[in-house]
Amino acid sequence: MRNSAGLYMNATGGFTSATESWRTAFLNSPGSPGSNYFLHHPRHSSGDYVVRVRGVDNHDFVTDPSLDATVTVTQPPNNPPVASFTVNCTDNICGFDGRSSTDENPSALTYSWNFGNGTGSGAFVSRTYTSANTYTVTLTVTDEYLATSTATQTVTITEPPDNVAPNAVIGTPTCTARTCSFTSSQSSDPNAGDSITRLWDFGDGGATSTSTSPTRTFPADGTYTVTLTVTDGWGKSSTVTRTVVIQEPAGNRVPIAVIDPPACTALLCTFSSAGSSDPDGDAITRLWDFGDGGSTSTTTSPTRTFPAAGSTQSP
Question: What does pTM read for this prediction?
């Protein structure tokens, strides 16, 4: 279908493209030239449209030329709807009822909500708020001809009288050398629907974290007190601590450094330390010095262009 501006209808009923596109339909009586097609879409505003029809057989052969027909769409007079809703809150749980909205055809209305902290749809909806604030709630109703109307109210939410602080839990950390992984996934709030935030202090003077399961590399061996504070949307919080001891294991052995034979073309050489290992299975880092006075490298297999011919030795 093409409108008077020469744009073709897309899959959602809008006219946005200058390139024709096709929709699959079937004849009421296959092969009968008098068969009818039916298309209903409220976005077709009044005006003239060109409907192009082509036939495709089971061998994918297409009729040429296609059949064009002009149709005239006339929308009946339409008044926009009038949005209206009521609110009923118990503590921080509110019900919103938009069924008092009016229209010439109220059964065709659609309802779209903005609760001030999220969105929803439907004539009657419920929302649980998880922090104290004054929220602006907006209802938008739309009729079958896409005419709209909005209504707005404010809702003031305060902390429920039975609200209690959440429970902060630090799971058992797992550490490899000085890097430890933590989790607070078992932390919870006994009040249904409450949201919680985390704040980690790792006791090393470094940056805090708000992640549910952070990872921390401690700067040196020592004993660290890790603190987790969990806070709900109303500001109530609880705190838990866990001690982490970072120390070199008894019997730890030094890693074995290996430089594989380099591959050189003119002044460009490729090195590899892939054969390096740690007898205890520890993670290892690399530091290359190429003996030319230039920058170092920490990669496993670096490439180096030397400034001049000569001999060098990487320690």
Answer: 0.59
